Write a sequence for this structure.
């Protein structure tokens, strides 16, 4: 972070984390699990994407307007919502055949 | 090998299209090749650093480091593009006239072109870091072998460079008196698209949390993740599901550039026709 001092100011703008549940999406052997993650509708959700592979990945979803690189054996936080009920697709942008679905109800 | 080819191709194409526009926009400027090379070299170095520090960047700023980093470098590129366009609105005519009477490569480079080198550096950094991560991933997985990876990577690089060269050659067909008008419009659209993307990253980090619903959806017509969709995304900021704030930021950026170019442009217009 020292390398990007101009970013530090933004820290003060970040929303305070006030999320009741933490939803987890795990990427292993080029498969997301759970295959169909269920999230609650109309509320903010904090989702953790864990990459348990030796290779980097990029969680990307046009449906959710999200894209985020997840390093090898690393995890990232993705804030979502409030979302309307429905099904949202996502994929690993570095391995496009690796896809998954999120159901919001 | 196909994976490496596709990823390297699409990232090279995205950065390459921007380099092509910049090269066309600096036609006739002495020493531009050097600046462009510095931009590319700096971008590659930056891409390696970003890939190397992925973990620290992600973990920074309460986990939102990636989004804020992307939004910041994109904003910097937007400011550089606006600066250059305003400068060109003042000097573009002059440059075109000199080039017509004295031939090419007569215009001394100005600091404005340094701004464009920064834009190139940022584009190469953003696209390149994905390539580095991906190739590193294949190298680790090692189910393909290094030769296949090099073959795929080189093929992708060549294809991406071809696409960009085609755009550049196409732009060079524009008569000199219109060229800088066209490149200014293209750079303005580039800036608007980057600004809309920057705001999308701030929305993803929920730093800005308004107007997040998609206003329309054209993914059935042209998906943003297809190759033509990606090219358009780079060139004009095409997004298949733009949200309200992205549309506002896009329009505000374009209007700002227009107003600034009007306001600061053409002080020498009185010199009239040549």
């Amino acid at each position: 972070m020292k390398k990007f001092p101009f970013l530090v100011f933004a820290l003060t703008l970040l929303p305070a984390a006030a999320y009741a549940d933490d939803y987890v999406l795990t990427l292993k052997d080029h498969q997301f699990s759970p295959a169909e993650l269920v999230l609650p509708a109309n509320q903010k959700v904090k989702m953790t994407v864990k990459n348990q592979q030796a290779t980097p990945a990029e969680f990307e979803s046009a449906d959710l307007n999200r894209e985020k690189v997840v390093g090898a054996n690393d995890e990232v936080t993705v804030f979502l919502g409030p979302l309307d009920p429905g099904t949202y697709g996502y994929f690993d942008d570095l391995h496009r055949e690796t896809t998954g679905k999120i159901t919001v109800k | 090998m196909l994976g490496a080819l596709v990823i390297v191709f699409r990232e090279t194409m995205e950065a390459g299209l921007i380099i092509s526009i910049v090269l066309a926009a600096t036609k006739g400027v002495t020493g531009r090749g050097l600046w462009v090379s510095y931009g590319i070299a700096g971008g590659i170095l930056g891409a390696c650093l970003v890939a190397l520090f992925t973990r620290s960047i992600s973990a920074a700023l309460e986990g939102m480091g990636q989004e804020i980093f992307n939004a910041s470098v994109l904003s910097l590129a937007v400011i550089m593009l606006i600066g250059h366009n305003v400068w060109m609105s003042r000097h573009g005519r002059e440059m075109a006239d000199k080039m017509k009477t004295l031939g090419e490569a007569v215009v001394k480079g100005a600091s404005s072109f340094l701004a464009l080198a920064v834009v190139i550096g940022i584009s190469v950094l953003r696209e390149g870091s994905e390539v580095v991560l991906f190739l590193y991933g294949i190298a680790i997985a090692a189910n393909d072998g290094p030769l296949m990876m090099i073959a795929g990577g080189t093929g992708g690089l060549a294809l991406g460079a071809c696409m960009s060269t085609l755009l550049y050659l196409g732009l060079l067909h524009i008569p000199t008196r219109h060229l800088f008008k066209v490149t200014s419009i293209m750079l303005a659209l580039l800036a608007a698209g980057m600004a809309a993307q920057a705001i999308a990253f701030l929305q993803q980090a929920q730093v800005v949390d308004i107007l997040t619903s998609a206003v329309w959806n054209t993914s059935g017509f042209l998906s943003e993740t297809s190759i033509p969709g990606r090219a358009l995304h780079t060139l004009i900021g095409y997004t298949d599901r733009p949200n309200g704030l992205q549309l506002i930021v896009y329009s505000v950026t374009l209007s700002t550039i227009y107003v600034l170019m009007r306001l600061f442009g053409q002080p020498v217009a009185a010199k009239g026709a040549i």
Observations:
- The radius of gyration of chain B is 20 Å.
- Chain B has one domain: 2-148+169-268.
